[in-house]
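Input chain follows. Return structure tokens only.
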Amino acid sequence: MMPSHDHPQSQPQPGHQPIGVKVPVNMGLNLCIGLAQLNPLVGDLEGNSRQVLVAARQAAAAGVQVLVAPELVLWGYPPRDLLLLPSMLRRQQKVLDALAQALPQHLWVLMGVVTPLADGGDCPLHNSAALLGGGGWRAVAAKRLLPSYDVFDERRYFRLGHQPCLVEIPLAGRPLRLAITICEDLWTDPQHPRHPTYDCDPVAELAPLAPDVMVNLSASPFAVGKQVLRQQLATAAAARLGCPVVYVNQVGGNDELVFDGNSFVVDPQGTIALQLPSTHPATHWVHLALPHSQMPHDRAAQGGAPPMAVTSPQEQLWEVLVLGLGDYARKCGFRSAVLGLSGGIDSALVACVAAAALGPRQLRGLLMPSSFSSPGSVADAHALARRLGMGTTTAPITPLVDAFAQALHPALGKDPDGVTAENLQSRIRGTLLMAIANAEGRLLLSTGNKSELAVGYCTLYGDMNGGLAVIGDLYKTDVYRLCRWLNSPAAQQQRCRAGLPGQGPLIPEAILSKPPSAELRPNQKDSDSLPDYTILDPILKKLVEQHHTPDQLIMGGDDPALVQHIWSLLRRAEFKRRQAPPVLKVSGRAFGTGWRMPIATC
């Protein structure tokens, strides 16, 4: 095959045989197809190409004939405005040429790339799949459905593909008829209750073309419950097409998004034939006998593991947070981190995640007690640090608070009091943490949760300081739930795998049982300013993630005064969220790129 940099073959081209012309399918075909679940670094075309090459060599050694890699794997997802740089597009061509030459013989690789369109129109790119083999490459498919919701903004960069995508790959026996979809193209099952509204159904348009196998190259970020939904959609597609579906997802953290992997193969009967691990890169393969029997058989040793056991929501959440923090630090060039350790549950959970992601010796906790800090909180923070094996430093802030009060007295005509005094303590702590992060080159981890960020129960330039908000997409009740799971015997294996103590509670019981408090004034509790979190969080979830209006909540039976109060807090805190650090996204809607509310509004 000679290199081709023209439009994807899914677009009509004069002189070419129309896509989808049927060929005889009465001949049997034994196919060994591989899944390369990779963790690309956004913009590192050369490094990502090397990952594909390593997977290709591993697969070829096992007899794989066709290897499938994720959507935009050469670029990493999402590449955002890197796609606007002409120099990056020129680099892609060179990288693909070199990769095609380096691939093992007798192996075909299907991978996500970008295809420039030379017609001068708007959005002059396709989100494409390229087929590499025989020393060359060509674009063979263009993404049909471009998501423009939540964190996705593909219509800013890409143009829709307009033809069903099917490619014939020459293999021994007969050509393999491979149908190609890219991520969102799969999300079209009309029977599914969360079916999005699109003008076309790429899966339905593939049915008359009688594919042997359908593949889906995906870059689908994690959200709780999303893996079940993916498998439901793929199972429906397999039944509609009467052929196996191979789903290959990206894995790893890129900025605030975390991709969980969980690639799989499903047959037309709905059986999950192969399930790749969650949150880890992997290259596996499966043997398919086509077309007489589309049931998998005789799986290769590496691809022959039984379907992975379904993990609990808490285990999934834990693994994704650890992956997201670890990749964020590694890909941004950090090897160590610092956080404020208060003796509260939020900083305790962030410390546990960071110790698992970076190692406890790479983690430093700063205790900054004031005159309002209880002895129990300081003792609890030390107990947690000893349990994790992380280092701590104590820097009392009372002298600094007094010095600030003295400096502000002439300007205010009195010492700071009320909210001003409380926020001053938080900002002093934020300054100390930033100083350590600067001096030691550490990543500062913000420890605020989603409930606080939603209602503005946080201080700009204080506890909101940081390079990453690790639990900023977990409501307070989620934090308690995850901590209790982490302390349970069910989490022992995950803790040991992460290098954390496996026996006994990890987080001291005193941290779990004490009433939440910022400890910024005498005997302060969160409940002095906010509804109980068991009441607050369900209302916030309906407002933030389910797009409910206050009127809908009131009509559903929620207290009108309470709903209006929470709604007011949510809207008034928008200016704070606009200045918050990136939040690891683990829910259907997080504060960040998928939340685009105005600051000044009625």
